[in-house]
Amino acid sequence: MTLGAFSTVSRDVTNTGNGSLTLDNSTIDGTLTHNGQSLTVTDKNASVGSLAGNGNGTLDGALHLTNAHDT
């Protein structure tokens, strides 16, 4: 799944199992829980409230944490 340019999710997002998630200049106001197969942030960057989980990811751009906690 890709959250395209300027997409905003106002709640939490969970990526699990074989799921893949691409953030392309996207915003997730809540927590992104990534336990899925892949997470990619494009060179257009992304913003999330907080990040949780144990999945791997590829950062081609910046991933801004706006409300990081329990790190």
What is the gist of this entry?
With 71 residues, this protein is mainly β.
Number of domains: 1
Count of strand segments: 9
Provide the residue-averaged pLDDT: 92
Quick one: biggest sheet? 5 strands, parallel
Return Rg in Å. 11 Å
Spatial shape: globular
Task: Outline the low-pLDDT stretches.
Answer: none
* Total of helices: 0
Distance between the termini: 26 Å
Which sequence of SSEs, written as H and E, runs from N to C? EEEEEEEEE
Structural class, from secondary structure content? mainly beta
Q: Strand share of the residues?
A: over 45%
Helix % is under 10%
Compile the SSE list and pairings.
Layout: E1 2-3, E2 8-9, E3 13-15, E4 20-23, E5 26-34, E6 38-41, E7 46-52, E8 57-59, E9 63-65
Parallel strand pairs: 1-4, 2-5, 3-5, 4-6, 5-7, 6-8, 7-9
Structure overview:
This protein is 0% helix and 52% strand. By secondary structure, it is mainly beta. The strands form two sheets. Strands 2, 3, 5, 7 and 9 form a five-stranded parallel beta sheet that branches. The protein has a four-stranded parallel beta sheet with strand order 1-4-6-8, with no helix packed on it. It starts with a strand and ends in a 6-residue tail after the last strand.
Fill in the keyword field for this structure.
0% helix, globular, 71 residues, 5-stranded parallel beta sheet, single chain
